Amino acid sequence: MKIEFAPLSLPLQRRLQTASVVQWVFSFLGLAQCCVALFIGLLFTRFWLLSALYAAWWLTDREAPSRGGRRSQLLRNSIVWRYMRDYFPVTLVKTAELDPRQNYLMGFHPHGVLAVGAFLNFCTEASGFSTLFPGITPHLMMLSLWFRIPFLRDYLMAGGLVSSNKESASHVLQRPGGGNLLTIIVGGAQEALDARPGSYTLLLKNRKGFVRVAIEHGTPLVPTFSFGENDLFEQVSNPKGSWLRRLQHRLQQVMGVSLPLFHARGIFQYSFGLVPYRRPIYTVVGKPIPVQKKYKPSEEEVDRVHQKYLEELCKLFEEHKAKYNVPEDSHLEFI
């Protein structure tokens, strides 16, 4: 006998969606500290052996984030991510096929404050990545700093995150047989400082390292733009040259991460808080750009492919902006 469950009521669904987003935002902000505290705290209890054994294993496993990570389909398919997807909601839009016999390097834009679109689309199956792109395994690069934190590193790798360095990129892009997609949020943490509603400023003009890596491996480049990514949070005014912007840049140089002062709505009220607004995100995956392999490309060759990438990204933006309520007079600005 088949058992059927009654669908959840709309109010309950919305509460679960909000709860999933709240846990993700606050885990993003505080999980690192909790993991460090747990690791150190266990050393001063009768369970100290757990931390000691983990430390020994961590030492032998320290290269894993640069060797493709260690994903968990159980985590990637968790129902929590589907509730989080429906909160905004988040939609992954396919415009071209990706050949599973090839490896690809994807440039993701913009970073936004917390890179919600990149996480949900490429670190979970909430938006149906494997259905849209069968035979393709996604990887998302993240600052190496986060993989030095006990327990957190395992959680990150379970979602398909890998260390953000050249060795890690080469490991994924050199895998025989193809079927791997390496996603780089090109603007990085610094671009998050310009993430605010209505902003289409991308830190991309002089960022060419990802292009050089693509040429060295002969890997097609896939431009991707996430409409709505910058609309999830407001940010305290920090124009270039202001004391706040100088302080943020200085902290980024010291710590490796930027600290945008963002705010949006609360859990039980809508005027102020750290919970993102319920605004849709449409992550549009563009057509792959063929790249000819060359071990040591010249600056001119890198510039030529980089310019082609900028043109294709602009074309992708202009072709789709009207569908996603972007004003006609809005265009991408590269800095």
3D structure, described in words:
The protein is of the alpha/beta class and 335 residues long. It contains twelve helices and eleven strands. The protein has helices at 10-42, 48-60, 73-76, 79-87, 116-122, 129-132, 152-158, 166-173, 188-191, 209-217, 243-255, 299-320, and strands spanning 90-94, 104-109, 137-142, 161-163, 180-185, 201-202, 221-227, 234-235, 262-263, 281-285, 333-334. The strands form three sheets. A seven-stranded mixed beta sheet has the order 1-10-7-2-5-3-4, sandwiched between helices. A two-stranded parallel sheet has the order 6-11. The chain has a two-stranded antiparallel sheet with strand order 8-9. Helix 7 links the parallel strand 3 (137-142) and strand 4. Helix 1 packs across helix 2 and helix 1 crosses helix 4 (79-87). The longest helix has 33 residues, at 10-42. The chain is globular and about 60 Å long. The protein starts with 9 loop residues before the first helix and ends with a strand. The model has no long low-confidence stretch (mean pLDDT 92). Its EC number is 2.3.1.-. It is found in: Endoplasmic reticulum membrane. Pfam families: DAGAT. This is Acyltransferase. It comes from Cairina moschata.
